[in-house]
Specification:
This protein has about 110 residues and is of the alpha+beta class. The chain contains three helices and four strands, in the order H-E-E-H-E-E-H. About 35% of the residues lie in helices and about 20% in strands. It has a four-stranded antiparallel β-sheet with strand order 1-2-4-3, covered by helices on one side. The two termini are about 20 Å apart.
């Protein structure tokens, strides 16, 4: 998996889902993230903790800005002191390499 972020190649109908044989490797690169499945669709998600709502909202807005840069958007749930980020590729109904790259970007924003 590359650290460079392509435009939303995961949004193409012919984009390939992550090879199941590589899934553990990708997950190991974002160890705080967990694999989920909803209605047969694999996703990765993580809860981030903050001291207050303002900091949670600031993080949400930063993640939203990077999502807008490449037109690939996560599910974001913002609460007092917590943000849950969930990535998957809607078009292919599953995980693409881009989802893991975006999870790494979220980590960079959080740790900045």
């Amino acid at each position: 998996m590359s650290d460079t972020i392509p435009s939303c190649e995961a949004c193409r109908p012919d984009a390939e889902k992550v090879d199941p044989a590589k899934l553990e490797k990708y997950l190991s690169q974002v160890p705080e993230w967990r694999l989920e499945e909803r209605n047969g669709v694999q996703m990765i998600s993580r809860d981030y903790k903050f001291k207050n709502f303002a900091l949670a909202l600031e993080f949400t807005n930063k993640v939203g800005a990077i999502a807008e840069e490449i037109n690939h958007h996560p599910e974001l749930v913002t609460e007092w002191g917590k943000v849950r980020v969930t990535w998957w590729s809607h078009t292919i109904k599953g995980l693409h390499e881009l989802d893991f790259a975006m999870a790494k970007r979220c980590e960079a924003v959080f740790n900045a």
